[in-house]
Hints:
- It is a single chain.
- Helix content is 21%, strand content 22%.
- By secondary structure, the protein is an alpha/beta fold.
- The strands form seven sheets. Strands 5-2-1-9-20 form a five-stranded parallel sheet, covered by helices on one side. The protein has a five-stranded parallel sheet with strand order 11-18-12-13-14. It has a three-stranded antiparallel sheet with strand order 6-7-8, with no helix packed on it.
- The radius of gyration is 22 Å and the shape is elongated.
Amino acid sequence: MAHVIVLGGGFGGLxxxxxxxxxxxxxxxxxxxxxxxxxxVGFAKxxxxxxxxxxxEGTGRLDALAGYGIAYVEATITRIDPERRRVxxxxxxxxxxxxxxxxxxxxxxxxxxxLQGVAYDLYDPEALPAMRAALGRLDAGRxxxxxxxxxxxxxxAPYEAAFLLDEHLRRRGVRDRVEVVVTTPxxxxxxxxxxxxxxxxxRALAERDIELRTGLALEAIDAEDQTLRFVGGxxxxxxxxxxxxxxxxxxxxxxxxxxxxxxxxxxxxxxARTRFERVYAAGDCTSRGRLAEGRSVRRGDGEGGGxxxxxxxxxxxxxxxxxxxxxxxxxxxxARVGPRGEILRRARPRGPSGRARHCDxxxxxxxxxxxxxxxxxxxxxxxxxxxxxx
Length: 390
């Protein structure tokens, strides 16, 4: 019997725990360790901010994992020993046969640290009441969404926030008196998505009269004058600032032997293996290139015929524990997770050739008039980056 320990209760940790639980025989144990007993989708914070839906409605408790056969331990992780696969926590130490590190990234407040009532961390759920109150008092002036630095979590978040804030101000009837600006240190809005997507985002912002200022690295926030100061001397006054913090690796990761350049974990891209035996890493705690200096993990990153063929070979040899070494590429595929941490949409099944039975444009739950994807329609295989229907 093997004991698999997953560190982290975010998307990466929950997806890994569910995938492993579903794939492994019942005699093997899966335990998830996380400091926060709640899970919520990050976008739900923006809905709460503009009054669309309270955060509580999109929040679930991790102790519900017991109903899915996954043990949950609420504890702060204080040390990771990857050589011994041992985890020390605030409630004791745990030894694992297989260890999955999915602790995400932490927010570096930088210029925001210590400021009260003049600028807010857009990603901080505890600041939502204060942000809602400040937004409710905003009847004129300039609302700025500055990206404090790179990398940062969730590349589209600043622009999603800007669109929602624009819509909120229009509903209140004050949009014509409030200027909305997004600043970023990146050369374009979403560099990893390419110039076409970045241009599309810029056009959409312009259509809503939202100003995008690129190439501006924030150096300091002058709370007294309510001014943002950028590297190079540029300044921008604001009435309300809702900032996107820079991401940094968790301290417990940066101080462990797993850490590579910059304190991030650099696992194998195809298998998510680290250099330590039976230790894997996934999600935002891995190499900063997968976070957003505009770069995020693409759908299907790490997939391929090789891991699938090896998985089948292990099954033929009836060595189920070896499957753990090959499951992380599946974990890293896009997946929707419900408020209780359950997987709402599993990865698409793959045929004997290793190719997906449905293309990216037409998953099984979407009706299709195109084909070439095995769905009995008329998909054009030449369409490599189609826009999904909404």
